[in-house]
Amino acid sequence: QLVESGGGLVQAGGSLRLSCAASINILSISAVQWWRQAPGKQRELVAQITRTSNINYADSVKGRFTISRDNAKNTVYLQMNSLKPEDTAVYYCTDPLTGTWGQGTQVTVSA
Fold first, then answer.
1. More confident residue, 17 or 27
2. How do strand 89-95 and strand 31-37 relate by DSSP bridges?
3. Alpha-carbon span 91 to 8, nearest angstrom
4. How far apart are CA 75 and CA 60, in angstroms?
5. Cα separation values, 71 from 11, 31, 92, Å
6. Which of 40, 45, 55, 107 is least buried, going by the fewest C-beta atoms within 10 A?
């Protein structure tokens, strides 16, 4: 099970940190992905961190978002800086191997 938290309302240029807490040893998951879906838009892969700490970002968030993992807390984070209104979406963390998705957390960035 994956549980997201940390969403909220922030002004453009602000920051938020999302958390994805796993109910199992996070290192037993081959990769954790952060996706987002804005109203009327397709779901977008935002960032991924693998068990071996290979990291990838969508071009739209490179240089602004940082994905990281705390093995002791079985948690993956998404630090989001310099937020823009177009970052507004529901953010989900997933285990792509098992198809496990969290319930999502809303991020709203006001202009």
1. 17
2. antiparallel
3. 11
4. 24
5. 31, 13, 19
6. 40
